[in-house]
Design brief:
single chain, alpha/beta, Rossmann fold, two-stranded parallel sheet, 5 strands, about 45% helix, globular, binds 4'-phosphopantetheine
Length: about 160
Amino acid sequence: MKVIYPGSFDPLTLGHIDIIKRLSKMYDQVVVAVLINENKNSIFSLSEREEIIKTQIEVDGLDNVVISSFDGLLVNFAKDLGIKTIARGLREVTDYEYEKNIAMFNSKLMDGLETIFLLSNPNYSYISSSGVREVASFKGDVSSFVSREVEGKIREKFDY
Ligand code: PNS
């Protein structure tokens, strides 16, 4: 059984890493799918985000996790790979409202598609990539929110 774990991952947080590790124990293969959304507010380019996740997966020794990227509709990417399960993390009720809507759109767009939700680890349930971007932009301490590897990349990027 394979699963797609999609997201922007700008940047990869401790919450994302926790979900990837848990999925890697549940599925034969986890495809981390990075959304191609180059915009002015991104910290990292697509290739940097992919490289960061790749390094993290190596550090954590997750040999059944692969990284890919997609543009356009997620269901088209899922169809191309022949994968019918998408996983998302849920932090708060607000996530549920947003995710439920997307999951319903996706299940209408692709027959047999299932979206599964993993409850975030409570230690990380307040962490968001946007929060990390904000702290990083002011050269703040991001060590509670991201791995050492990601922190290093952020410090390089923001020169601190
Ligand atoms: O990390 P994010 O930004 O919360 O991830 C959101 C993501 C990438 C899962 C979502 O925006 C997405 O799937 N975008 C692709 C477009 C799409 O398929 N939308 C669903 C139909 S509404």
